[in-house]
C-alpha cells in the first residue's frame, strides 16, 4: 500500500509541475527587433554583371551609401511637411514627386541632419542646359562638390547597386532572374495576378498600387524594390553619363504600372524634370 501511495504522490507532483509550466508566469518579452540601417554601404569597383550597360568598360564606381528602400512617405513628411502621394501609407514609397522635388528633399534632409547640402538650387535662373519646352520650372541645379549631404544617385551608381555591386550574381532583374521574386509591376501589384496584354482599365480594376519596402526579395546587397514599385529619379540627363545638358532626366527600375521589360537593371527610362506621377519616386545616396 505504501508503495502505491508513493507512486500516486509522484504522479501528482509531475502533473502539478506540468501545470505550473503551462500556466506559470509568462516568459520574459523578447527584446526590440533589430532595425536595419536605412542606408546600405556599397563597395565600389568595376561592373561585375555582364547584363549592365557598363560591363567591360573602364568605369569604376567609388564606395557610397544608398537607401535600402525608396524614400517613404513618412520620411518625406518629416522633412517636407506634406504628402503628395496618391497611395497613402507611412511606409509606402512617396510618389507624385518631380526631379526638382527630389533634389530639394535631399538638401532639406541634409540640413535637418546637420549635413552640408550637396546641391546649389537657383529657382530664379532658368537653366540654359535644359532643352525641354514643356518644363516650366527649369531651376538651375549645380553640385556642391565635396559636400556630405544626401543626393540622387547617378545612373552608373544606381545600376551598379541594382546589379549587386561586387556581390553580383549577374541577374536580369535586381536580385533575381524572375521578376515576380523581386518586383511589383503591372501583373502582380494588385488584388490578383494579371495575364494577357497590358490594359489600363484592367489594371485599374485590379487595384494595382505601390507596396512597402521589403515585400519582395532583396537583391545581393540587401536593397529592396530596385526593380518595380516606383520608378526612381537619377541625377543624369538622358543624353548620357557626363553630358551636362538634355531634355529629360533618367528614371530607373520600372514601376507598378509598367511592363516587366522596364524592371530590367539596364533599362533606361526618361521623364521631364518637372514631371510626376503615382509611379514616380526615388531613393537617396551619400558619399562614403
Architecture blueprint of SSEs:
Layout: H1 2-23, E1 39-42, E2 45-46, E3 60-61, E4 64-67, H2 73-80, H3 99-112, E5 119-126, E6 139-143, H4 155-162, H5 179-182, H6 200-205, E7 231-237, E8 249-252, E9 269-271, E10 280-281, E11 285-287
Parallel strand pairs: 7-10
Antiparallel strand pairs: 1-4, 2-3, 4-11, 5-6, 7-8, 8-9
Verbal overview:
With 288 residues, this protein is an alpha+beta fold. It has one domain: paralog of FGE (formylglycine-generating enzyme), CATH 3.90.1580. The radius of gyration is 25 Å and the shape is globular. Strands 9-8-7-10 form a four-stranded mixed β-sheet. Strands 1-4-11 form a three-stranded antiparallel β-sheet, with no helix packed on it. It has a two-stranded antiparallel sheet with strand order 2-3. The chain is built from six helices and eleven strands. It has helices at residues 2-23, 73-80, 99-112, 155-162, 179-182, 200-205, and strands at 39-42, 45-46, 60-61, 64-67, 119-126, 139-143, 231-237, 249-252, 269-271, 280-281, 285-287. The model is unreliable at 1-33 (pLDDT under 50). The protein is 22% helix and 15% strand.
Helix content: 10-25%
What is the residue-mean pLDDT, rounded to a whole number?
A: 90
Q: In the CATH hierarchy, what is the architecture at level 2?
A: Alpha-Beta Complex
Helix-strand string = HEEEEHHEEHHHEEEEE
Question: What's the total count of β strands?
Answer: 11
| Low-pLDDT residue intervals, each spanning 5 or more residues | 1-33
> Tell me, what's the shape?
globular
CATH T-level fold name: paralog of FGE (formylglycine-generating enzyme)
Number of helices: 6
CATH superfamily: paralog of FGE (formylglycine-generating enzyme)
CATH C-level class: Alpha Beta
Spatial strand arrangement across the major sheet:
9-8-7-10
Q: How many structural domains can be distinguished in the coordinates?
A: 1
Largest sheet: 4 strands, mixed
Q: What is Rg? A: 25 Å
Structural class: alpha+beta
The percent range for strand residues is 15-25%
Q: Distance between the terminal alpha carbons, to the nearest Å? A: 81 Å
Amino acid at each position: 500500500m505504501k508503495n502505491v501511495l508513493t507512486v500516486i504522490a509522484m504522479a501528482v507532483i509531475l502533473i502539478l509541475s506540468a501545470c505550473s509550466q503551462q500556466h506559470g508566469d509568462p516568459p520574459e518579452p523578447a527584446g526590440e527587433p533589430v532595425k536595419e540601417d536605412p542606408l546600405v554601404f556599397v563597395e565600389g569597383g568595376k561592373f561585375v554583371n555582364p547584363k549592365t550597360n557598363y560591363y567591360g568598360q573602364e568605369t569604376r564606381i567609388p564606395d557610397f551609401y544608398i537607401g535600402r528602400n525608396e524614400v517613404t512617405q513618412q520620411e518625406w513628411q518629416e522633412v517636407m511637411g506634406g504628402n503628395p502621394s496618391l497611395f497613402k501609407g507611412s511606409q509606402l514609397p512617396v510618389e507624385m514627386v518631380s526631379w526638382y522635388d527630389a533634389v530639394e528633399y535631399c538638401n532639406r534632409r541634409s540640413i535637418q541632419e546637420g549635413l552640408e547640402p550637396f546641391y546649389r538650387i537657383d529657382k530664379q535662373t532658368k537653366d540654359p542646359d535644359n532643352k525641354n519646352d514643356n518644363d516650366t520650372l527649369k531651376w538651375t541645379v549645380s553640385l556642391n562638390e565635396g559636400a556630405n549631404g544626401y543626393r540622387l544617385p547617378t545612373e552608373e551608381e544606381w545600376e551598379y547597386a541594382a546589379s549587386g555591386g561586387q556581390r553580383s550574381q549577374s541577374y536580369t532583374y535586381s536580385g533575381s532572374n524572375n521578376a515576380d521574386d523581386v518586383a511589383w509591376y503591372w501583373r502582380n501589384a494588385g488584388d490578383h495576378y494579371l495575364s494577357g496584354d497590358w490594359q489600363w482599365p484592367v489594371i485599374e480594376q485590379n487595384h494595382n498600387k505601390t507596396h512597402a519596402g521589403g515585400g519582395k526579395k532583396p537583391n545581393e546587397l540587401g536593397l529592396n524594390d530596385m526593380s518595380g514599385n516606383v520608378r526612381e529619379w537619377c541625377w543624369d540627363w538622358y543624353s548620357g553619363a557626363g553630358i551636362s545638358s538634355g531634355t529629360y532626366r533618367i528614371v530607373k527600375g520600372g514601376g507598378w504600372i509598367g511592363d516587366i521589360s522596364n524592371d530590367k537593371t539596364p533599362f533606361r527610362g526618361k521623364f521631364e524634370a518637372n514631371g510626376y506621377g503615382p509611379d514616380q519616386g526615388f531613393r537617396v545616396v551619400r558619399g562614403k
